[in-house]
Amino acid sequence: MERLPLVVLQEILRCLVPWPCSQDELSEMADRMWRAQAFKGHLPPAARSGKIEASGQRTALGRCIFSSPTPPESAEPAPLLLNLMFLLRAGPQAHAAVGWLTTWMPDHIAQVLHAFALQGQLHVLPTDCCNAHRNAYASAVRRRDAAGLHWIINEAIILPTGSVWNHRDQILQLACGTTWMPLIQHISHLYGFGNFWPNIVAWNMRAIGIATAYPTDRSYCCQYGPGALSGLNQLIGRTREARLEQRVALCWGREIIRILSPLWPALAVHAPVPLLEAYIVEWMLCELSKETEASWRV
Asked: Can you tell which superkingdom this protein's organism belongs to (predicted)?
């Protein structure tokens, strides 16, 4: 495999670029990287040695997560976690509708979301939500099915967010550790999470500065979601639906990191980049699962 698909390169750059970028800018950088094959270059010495990461445990990764509403300057970790979870589960439009949350009020928030959905002002769930939830929500909105909306809002948003809020002390304590796999595993046991969501939550906690920015196990630990397992099966020549255990996927992920690390695209972003992480490989494999084999194998 000589080159990665453009869509995968865009997702790599979305993780790595240390400044806010529009989709057009990401596409342009990915296209330049694709045409010039810039990923044949090597990481700069600072990135290989980890020197660019020595700015403190709680330093954020620099990604802009919140748009409207924005967090107050004095926001504590618990409300930041709550608003992050609600934003990820419900989307920016819903977050703007309810405003900045200082505590969890599930009944009130469910009523607000229910009313907005019935009025046609919240059309879809975020793309990270599973297809079953997205389809059920879109169908209920079209049919103005009040009971169906009540159920799907609870299942997709209220109950998972409430589960994180109820475990916030444990989550925030684990988030301050030097490794992130205990945090991921803890989240995976909460209601509505499984193997896909914990990576997203933990990664974004790092991004906004409420978790250790550069955990020591990030290059070999994460959870593999269904899409990544499908993409990995495709990559190694198996059927997409073949059974693949987490421990086996992690071993393959470490091998992929070993192969890709010397090719990491420092030249494409014109800046030092962090070390290649297991979660970025998992993300790449998930994107790969959306493509036909003919689009990437050469």
From this structure: Eukaryota
What tokens does 91 get?
């989307």
Helices 168-175 and 77-90: angle between axes, nearest 10 degrees: 100
Q: Model confidence at 269, in pLDDT bands (50, 70, 90)?
A: low
Contact 67, 92 (CB under 8 A): yes
How sure is the predictor about 246, in pLDDT bands with cuts at 50, 70 and 90?
very high
* 81 and 202 together in one domain: yes
CA–CA dist 173, 151 (Å, integer): 32
Residue 42 domain-assigned (yes or no): yes
Structure tokens at 152: 């799907």
**Cα angle 54-56-58, degrees, rounded to a multiple of 5:** 140
Residue 69 lies in a domain: no
Chain position carrying tokens 């700069």:
44
Q: Are residues 95 and 18 in the same domain?
A: no
Structural domains in the chain (count):
2
pLDDT 10s digits, 39-95: 333 222 322 233 323 333 334 444 457 777 888 888 899 999 999 999 999 988 889
**202 & 228 share domain:** no
- Mean pLDDT, residues 190-219: 91
Of 158, 147, 164, 94, residue with least CA distance to 123: 94
How far is Cα of residue 255 from the mean position of the Cα atoms in its chain? 22
What band does 10 get if pLDDT is binned at 50, 70 and 90?
low
- Domain span at 189: 77-207
- 286: Cβ contacts below 8 Å, ≥ 6 apart: 225, 227, 228, 230, 231
Cis peptide before 69 (omega within 30 of 0): yes
In this prediction, residue 293 carries a pLDDT of 63
- Three-state SS for 268? helix
* pTM of the model as a whole: 0.75
Q: Rounding to the nearest 10 degrees, give the CA dihedral for residues 289, 294, 297, 298.
A: -170
- pLDDT above 90 covers a percentage of the chain that reads 41
